[in-house]
Every structure is written in C-alpha cells, then in structure tokens.
Amino acid sequence: MVANKKAIGDQAEQLACAYLTQQGLVLLKANFSIRLGEIDLIMRDTANNMLVFVEVRYRKNNHYGGAAGSVTVQKQRKIIKTAAFYLQRYAPNSCARFDVIALEGDLNGYYEMNWIVDAFQLT
Questions:
Q1: Of 4, 1, 16, nearest to 111 (Cα)?
Q2: Domains of the chain by start residue, with CATH
Q3: Is 110 helix (H, G, I), strand (E, B) or coil?
C-alpha cells in the first residue's frame, strides 16, 4: 500500500509539473527535502522571475475537504520553514510565492486540476 501511495504521489507531481511547465514555469528542483520538511516542486515563473514553491496534493474524491483543503496550517508552516532554508542557501535575493496544485479524480482517467497561485503567505 505504501509503495502504491508513493507511485500515485509521484504521478500527481509529474502531472502538476507538466502542467506548470506548459504555463511557462521552469522546474528547478523536485522533492527538495531537508530535516525540516519537503517541497514537492521548486520552479521559476519566467514571467516575473519569481521562485515558486509548489505543494502538490491529490485526493481520489473531494470528501473531507478535498485536495486543496488538505494543506493545513501545520503543513504550510513546514513548507515555509523549508522554503526559508532554500532561499537562504540557494537564492538569497529572490522573491518567492507559495502555490498549491490540487488534483482530484482518477489520475489515469478523468481528473480535475486546480492551480492556486499564491495560496498562502510567509506570515
């Protein structure tokens, strides 16, 4: 079951990355991980030269709040701390935002993808 969840998560991240690339973003790093946490995708928005930290969430259905609703305040804090480390280490003078890609449905059939730009802030 765990291997299957990992494969599904990887597939969701690949779909999200392909979509964002079509929208003009450039992938810098996938699955950036440190002790503090992990960021699914780190991309650059070429329209405004901004770093974009992307959290990809997948749910088979929208019960219990759906994919977007699963990005809790605690999860946001972990992403923010991990992003702060990345910015300090690799891109100290960069502007950044936090986006969420929420996928719901059958990843091998019909699914909906919702791109939430600037989903949460550094506050």
A1: 16
A2: 2-120 (3.40.1350.10)
A3: coil
What pLDDT is attached to residue 73? 87
pLDDT in tens, 4-57: 888 888 999 999 999 999 999 999 999 999 999 999 999 999 999 999 999 999
CA distance 51 to 34: 18
Are β-strands 50-59 and 96-105 bridged in parallel, bridged antiparallel, or unpaired?
parallel
Residue 63 CB coordination number (10 Å): 8
**Nearest-CA neighbor of 12 among 108, 84, 116?**
108
DSSP string, 83-107: HHHHHHHH-TT--EEEEEEEEEE-T
